[in-house]
Amino acid sequence: MNQSPQQGSNRTGITAAGGLAEAMIAATRQFPPSSPGSALAIADVRIAYAREGESFGEAPPPSALLLDKLGERLAFERTGARLYEALLSKHRAYGAFPGGPRADDVLHILHEEYEHADMLERTIKDLGGDPTTVTPSANLAASVAAGLPQVLTDPRTNLLQSLEAIVVAELADNECWTALAQLARQAGQEALTEGCLEAIGHERDHLRKVRLWIAAGQGRTAEGGEGAADEFTFAENSPVDREGYVVSEEERAEAREAGGGSQAGKSGKGRSKRRGG
Amino acid sequence: MAINLLRDTGTPLEQQRFTWRDLVQAPYSKLRDDAFTRVRVILMNGIESEALRFSHACARMNGPWQAALAQVRRVEQHQQTMVNWLNPADQDPLETTIGFEQVAIEVTASVAEKEPDPYLAQVFRFGLLEDFDHLYRYSALMDRLMGKDASTLVQSYSDIVPGRPTVVEHRHPLDDLRKPYDRRRAAPLTKLHALTIMAGEHQTHDYYMTIGPLFADPVARQLYAEIASIEEQHVTQYESIIDPGETWLEKWLLHEAGEVYNYWSCVESEENPRIRAVWERFLDYELGHVRVVARLFEETEGRDAAEILPERLPEPIRYASHRDFVREVLRRELTLSAVGAEFVDREQESEATRTYRDHMNSEGSPSETVAAGYTWRPGTELTDPATRVRSLPPEAERRAA
User: Fold this and answer.
1) Quick check: B90 and A142 CB within 8 A?
2) Whether the predicted interface score ipTM is above 0.95
3) What mean pLDDT do residues A61-75 have?
């Protein structure tokens, strides 16, 4: 099946309405606003409600922040697994496209999402937490990602359109695993830090692949090339550099002294061999 | 807190006022609050929704009372708003659906346990097992659509296992009509029970009809269509147990008394002090409504309101887990169906019901599809590697194995 939008009727723009839009614009001159001000009026109400101090809820003890973020990743990985299951259905319904994912590629990522969820569940238990708890960050992430299953499970979206939702999930995964690795390191959780770095490697790989598939589906491989898909957006102090190499604290300190900022380890000196992907 | 339905004045109607800021208060917390706070909010929204529905129907049939109905109804509108807006925005429509089904299980179980009329207790138990199954189907949907665990909402108070399978709940309309209580002989509690459960089920139906199309997934859309149809059957069932011989004013008075009874039940059980203050305020408002309608009833019908209302309220609704009761009903009554107003074993169902059901299910059953092989597990079924393999397409499953 075709993955590109077809040319056809679309009534949403004002040019499609012919002269009717001009009549609408004329009406706004004849009937001015009933109250003065701007969209800033809405901000005042938002601020007043925010100052009441109600929160979503709290993270359970012990080590609230780390458990909060572990809970967030666990919830996101479970949702992610369901997204990739839905993507498999798209693959079966719409078929592959040149340069797009094979079913095996999707399955490979799905299995890594399962593995990440298993690791997170074990870790939460080891830390004395309850992996079935919805932590505040997990709750927030669910609201952020609420549109993703809607895209993946809509029978009207094809494989390529579904990948546009997947790439949002993978970007969030890359950002949040990085933050989790830092929190784990700060908490002195060496095994967890290692686990996070391994997951970051997988997630970098997922993002790179999804970007390449989307690029192929849109027929834009010529200008960007594979390098375009390797460009990541990083959090400050990311433990992974632009090429996806894991950077140690020492390397980062060294780079800061040399004025290299967060992109430490560019020289390759002392790099870990944990290449992302 | 002791309530005297015949004497307590509550808040006078003219003092029942709101502002928009007042109507939109901070919601309860999905993470922090007890599941029964959500259950109470969802039920009370249904109770107020029924107050409006009844009031409009009554106004359309009774010109002389339109002014009184309009004044009380405006307050009920704003009560419903304040209550319904206590639902938090981070509780998505499917999560709220889980809350609706927990209402239908735990509140109906409380009612069924306390109902003095044995036939009506059977009616409530019959509906209970069907809603109990809906919780299981929607939980499977939540797990399989979003990778989320419904137990985070029911907080382990209610079991997530199959009840009377939704696929066999579809009956011919004539097999959903029951026998009404007799308005002259029925206990006041029977009347309050019937109104409460009818209101809850009607709102459940309306909610599913509103949010069903918000889902993109075709199985989710089908499941809401299927369960909304059962909720319509339940509304048909529960409104048929109410004596149609009650006068309009008698019904109005009972509605207001039912609202008092329900707000009072909420006050008696609510742990969140901010939400309890809402229940207390509206308990006083409803006592004010009872006074208005009782006066109108007495002036119009020349009867004492004490003929209709008890002086003291019966025991409150028990907002707690009814696990043992539900399991016992499951064990005894799972295979029940109905022919007309009588309950029979499924083998004795009417031809009309069989024909209707067979046709509705002839192109597949959404409730069976969504929960195919589904066993609830803490943290979703994804925590079980064997289940994960079974969820993959056949060729992928072979590779994974």
Assistant:
1) yes
2) no
3) 90
